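Methods — Computational structure assignment.
A single polypeptide chain was analysed. Its primary sequence is given first, followed by the predicted tertiary structure written as structure tokens.
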Amino acid sequence: MVRGRVIGRFWATKRVDTLPQGALLEVELDTGSRLIAFDPLGCAEGEQVLITQGSVAAAYFERHRAPVDALIIGSLDEPGSGA
């Protein structure tokens, strides 16, 4: 798993049928690199997120095979937020 911050959103009016409802978000990782991750949670720009990648991300979808390589699996609370 890797941690990063959402910095943008991509719109895809055309997508393959097996891709479920969700957003495509651009995330800047702690290393400074960027990736596009599928977001089923509804995260917002500026949120710190936890991402899983590869076969683990694709296996999350039980009903059909989704072509997902990076999946947001959590929105991280800021330290000291009391949550």
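Note: The two ends are 21 Å apart (CA to CA).
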